[in-house]
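@here heads up, posting the sequence + SMILES for the adenosine-5'-triphosphate run so it's all in one place. Ping me if the SMILES looks off, I pulled it from an old spreadsheet.
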Amino acid sequence: MSIIQLSNVNQYFDKNHVLKQINLEVEEGDFMTFLGPSGCGKTTTLRIIAGLEKPESGIVTIQGKIVDHGEMHVHAAPSARGLSLVFQSYALWPHMTIFDNVSFGLEVKKIPKAEIRKKVELALEKMRIRDLIDRYPSELSGGQQQRVAIARAIVTEPKILLLDEPLSNLDAKLRIEMRTELKRLHRDMKTTIIYVTHDQVEALTMSTKIALFFDGKIVQVDTPRGLYRNPGTLQAADFIGNPSINLIEARSVEAEGMLRTTSSLGQLDFFYEGHQSGEVVLALKPEDIHISRLPSEGAIPCQVYSVLPAGSETLIQLQQGDRGLLAKTIGEVDYEMDSTVWISFPADKINVYDKLSEKLISKNRI
Ligand SMILES: Nc1ncnc2c1ncn2[C@@H]1O[C@H](COP(=O)(O)OP(=O)(O)OP(=O)(O)O)[C@@H](O)[C@H]1O
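bot reply: prediction finished. Complex structure tokens:
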């Protein structure tokens, strides 16, 4: 059952059309991430769900109740929506202890003191900071303060938790630690989470679903694996690829129901659906390229342009004729610059896009 539904939501700031016909269903228990480049409308969509902004047009439904109806001027207050919010800046009250910071939401609900204590301890326990209960925010690290902010949001046991880039102020190590905590929290509490980020690794590692935004529109809603293996457009493929995906132009013809492509990767056949205009683009992920120092049948010779070791993995920039290709290998490897190597790849891991429409026409089977 969908717990949150957005239908044809539009938002303008002055004359700037920042959300364009947003349609979205969030299922109960989802960890839904809004992913996309800066300024594409993720935060505005989250703020509309939270009730902090009124949409110009469209309908927002939460737990079966219409909370916004742009045309009918219906707008429910944030406090009436049964959700909690955590922002990038943790905004703890500096003059209050961690206990007081977290218990605040319960005090205003007039819950008995002993019960408040139990709930606060449990929320802090969940974030693994129970021992910090009597400290003040200034005595905590940034990561600990962000844990307090999340504890404060979950102490009221909201059915829906909205998180706007909550980890972006933390250093890389803490961010990874917090990702694992948030993932466990989601599993343990079974809360529906909506999470805003422009960091695709964050989105891919934690979410059950990802909504990909570009320029005020949702272009794809998919599982992390679905989005990673089958980005629906060339723009999505380019955004998701990290390091950059290899895009190779090819000519194509239909041959015995298959799409036969001819490019610098040789002749390849693909199952396909949809319209193809004759010119296509092959998308090959760096990690799908296998490099060998010795020639073998079907392998393609390339020159090594440069090798970038990064500890646990190595990026290898190759040159094939006048085209560059990026490969990624797990572990440390070294190749002499300008030496010849041979590459091979599983053709069924290549996505094919129609060049004209930029749409995916041949998917990976996952
Ligand atoms: N209060 C506002 N007044 C005017 N324009 C705004 C306002 N809030 C957002 N915008 C504009 O709306 C667009 C969408 O902004 P939004 O914050 O939703 O993007 P975002 O995808 O969350 O970006 P980021 O990742 O940088 O936070 C941007 O062009 C932004 O400049």
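MO: The helical segments are 42-50, 98-107, 113-126, 142-154, 172-189, 200-206, 224-229, 234-240.
MO: One more: DSSP finds eight helices and 22 strands in the chain.
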